[in-house]
Amino acid sequence: MIVSFPDPLPMLASDPDPIVRLEGVTKVYGMGAATVHALNGIDLAVPRGEYCAIMGPSGSGKSTAMNLIGCLDRPTEGSYFLDDTDVARLTDDELAAIRNRKLGFVFQQFHLLPQMTALENVMLPMVYAGIPSDERRDRAAEALRKMGLANRMQNKPTQLSGGQQQRVAIARAIVNEPLLLLADEPTGALDSRTMREVLEIVDELHASGITIVMVTHEVDVARHTERIIWFRDGRVIHDRLTPEEMREVALGQ
C-alpha cells in the first residue's frame, strides 16, 4: 500500500530533551460551581521517535491533553515545551505557525474539504506554509502515492471510501514533514479490515522516524504502540504501560 518512506531517523528512546514535555500542567474550564478541572498538575514527556498511546475512560482528560499537545489550547497553569519551545507563552499567530510547521493531525472524522480533490486537500497545509505551487503539487502527489492513492488524486472525498479518506488525511498530515503526528481516534470510523490497513500505514510512519501520539479507546489499536499512558480524573495514573499490561489495567478501571 505504501511505496516508500525516507530512511529512518535515529530512535532516541532515552532522549534527555524530549520533543513533548508537560510540567505541572493544569487545565480548568468554567468558574464557580461550574468549574471543571480537566487536568490536575500532570507531568508527561514523549521522546523523539516514540510511538505512544493515551488511553483512559471518558472524562479522564486524555482529549484535553491531546488538545494541549497539539497547540489547540493552552494550560491554565504549568508549562508545555514542544521541541524546546515554551508554547504556552506564544501568541495565537505563533501557535498557528507551530501547528503548521511542526505538527500533523489525523482525526476520526477525516475533516477533508468536500469541494476539493484529494490532491487539493493534501496541498492545503503547504498553502499556509507559503510553499510554491509547483512544489506543493509535487509533494502532495508523492504523499498520496505513498498512501497507495496514485489513481485517486482527482477524486473528491465523497468519491472515496472511508479508508481512502483517512489515507488522504494522513497524507495531508505528513506532507509538511512534521516533527510530531497526533492521531485522535484515527480508526474510530473504520471497519476492522480498513482499521488494520490504516494502522499498517501508521506503523510505517513510525518506522521512518516520526514521533506519534495517539488517543484511542481500542485495545487492539493501542497494541501497535510502544508505550501506553493511562489517564484518570485528569491525572496520569500510569505513564509507561506496555501493551501487554494495558488490558489488565483497563479492566480494573
TrEMBL record:
<keyword id="KW-0067">ATP-binding</keyword>
<dbReference type="Pfam" id="PF00005">
    <property type="entry name" value="ABC_tran"/>
</dbReference>
<dbReference type="InterPro" id="IPR015854">
    <property type="entry name" value="ABC_transpr_LolD-like"/>
</dbReference>
<dbReference type="GO" id="GO:0005524">
    <property type="term" value="F:ATP binding"/>
</dbReference>
<feature type="domain" description="ABC transporter">
    <location>
        <begin position="20"/>
        <end position="251"/>
    </location>
</feature>
<keyword id="KW-0547">Nucleotide-binding</keyword>
<dbReference type="GO" id="GO:0098796">
    <property type="term" value="C:membrane protein complex"/>
</dbReference>
<dbReference type="GO" id="GO:0005886">
    <property type="term" value="C:plasma membrane"/>
</dbReference>
<dbReference type="InterPro" id="IPR003439">
    <property type="entry name" value="ABC_transporter-like_ATP-bd"/>
</dbReference>
<protein>
    <submittedName>
        <fullName>ABC-type antimicrobial peptide transport system, ATPase component</fullName>
    </submittedName>
</protein>
<dbReference type="InterPro" id="IPR003593">
    <property type="entry name" value="AAA+_ATPase"/>
</dbReference>
<dbReference type="InterPro" id="IPR027417">
    <property type="entry name" value="P-loop_NTPase"/>
</dbReference>
<keyword id="KW-0813">Transport</keyword>
<dbReference type="GO" id="GO:0016887">
    <property type="term" value="F:ATP hydrolysis activity"/>
</dbReference>
<dbReference type="GO" id="GO:0022857">
    <property type="term" value="F:transmembrane transporter activity"/>
</dbReference>
<dbReference type="InterPro" id="IPR017871">
    <property type="entry name" value="ABC_transporter-like_CS"/>
</dbReference>
<dbReference type="InterPro" id="IPR017911">
    <property type="entry name" value="MacB-like_ATP-bd"/>
</dbReference>
